[in-house]
Structure formats: C-alpha cells, structure tokens
From TrEMBL:
Gene: fsa
Function: Transaldolase is important for the balance of metabolites in the pentose-phosphate pathway.
UniProt-recorded name of the protein: Probable transaldolase
Record pathway: Carbohydrate degradation; pentose phosphate pathway; D-glyceraldehyde 3-phosphate and beta-D-fructose 6-phosphate from D-ribose 5-phosphate and D-xylulose 5-phosphate (non-oxidative stage): step 2/3
Provenance organism: Spirosoma pollinicola
MF terms in GO: aldehyde-lyase activity; transaldolase activity
Source organism, top-level taxon: Bacteria
Amino acid sequence: MKFFIDTANLADIREAQDMGILDGVTTNPSLMAKEGITGKDNVMRHYKQICEIVQSDVSAEVISVTYDEMIKEGEELADIDENIVVKVPMSGDSIKAIKYFSEKGIRTNCTLIFSAGQALLAAKAGATYVSPFVGRLDDISTDGMALIEQIVTIFTNYGYTTEVLAASVRHPMHVIQCAEIGADIMTAPLSVMKMLLNHPLTDSGLAKFLADHEKANLPVK
Ligand code: E4P
C-alpha cells in the first residue's frame, strides 16, 4: 500500500520524505489555509515547492466548481509540474472535467467521495484516484472502512484501473484496516504515520537490551 501524506506543511513533508516511506502528497484548500498560503501566486509557488521535495504524486485541489473554470484551473495546476494530480470535488461538472482531463493525459483525484456510486462514476470517467473519506463517515456514525471495502470490490470486479486512495485517515487502525482490505493508497498526517512506529514492548525490550549491554561491559574491578 502506498503512503501519501495529507498536509501542506513543508517541514512535515520533508520529514516523511526523509523517513523513506513517502509515495506522494495530498492537500486540500483547508490544509493550504492552515499553512497561511493564500492568493493564487502563493498557492502555485507552494505546490512547486512541494513538488521539489517529493518528486512523486502531489494532489492539488481546484477551488472552481463549474466545468469551464475547473478545466482552466486544472490545466494551470497541471502545468506546475509533471507530478501534479488535479484534485476535483465530486459533482456532475467534476465528472465531465475528469473525462476531459483523462483524455488529455492529465491525472485526477476525485475527492469528497462518500458513496460507492460516486466512486463508480469517477472511475467510469477515467479518474486516476478516488478519495473516499473514512474518518468523516466514522464521525457521523457510519462505517467509513466498509465504504473502502465496497469500492475495492467493485473496482476489482470490473478491472478499473482507478486507484482507491483512502482519505481522512485519522489513526493507526485505519491504516492497518486499509491495508487488510487492499486499498491502493492511504493518505494521513505525519502524526498518524509516526504512531505506527510505537509499541510499548519495543520500548521496554530496547531498554533491557541496552541495560544488559551496559552491565556486561562494565570495567572489571
Ligand atoms: C483528502 O485528501 C483530505 O485532504 C483529507 O484526508 C481529509 O481529512 P480530514 O477529514 O481529517 O480533514
């Protein structure tokens, strides 16, 4: 399973990249705003900086909602770098835009997916990725992971090449469950990736190894 980092924070992207486990980056307008990136020129510059750090897929989300505007904005984003994936929120106009982009060889990530029907439409239009939001479904007492499973099954049944990018991943168990189900990618903040490192038996085991080594190597009196 590929690991994407879900952030616009350059330090976090660098740290995940340095760990050697990073396969790409996803951003959204809220994450850009959180970093204080405002105005078209700054946004474009920020995406360029991200692309210079990772040299792999970087999802850049349009803020346009109509077909014509989405096409214009998406083409501008795609021109920033060959690794930019144009991220479009699920809608009728977006489905048309995904079809247009896929015919032009521009890769897309259809975001804000909350049902299997939405994922199926995006796949039929030629989306490179669909992003079902696990955590936000869990937030409203609906099983987010069940949606990942449903979409993986449907895409496998028909051999769709669209990849399932599990988004809104909030904790380590989400990551493990995505991997068990066979999601192609999961995107999560750096904090969630780091939580995967931890186990109390690793900590106590290492402390004992080091203490035993120290004892055995004390100078003989
Ligand atoms: C997906 O690409 C979104 O950026 C993200 O995963 C949303 O996560 P959240 O529900 O924690 O905001």
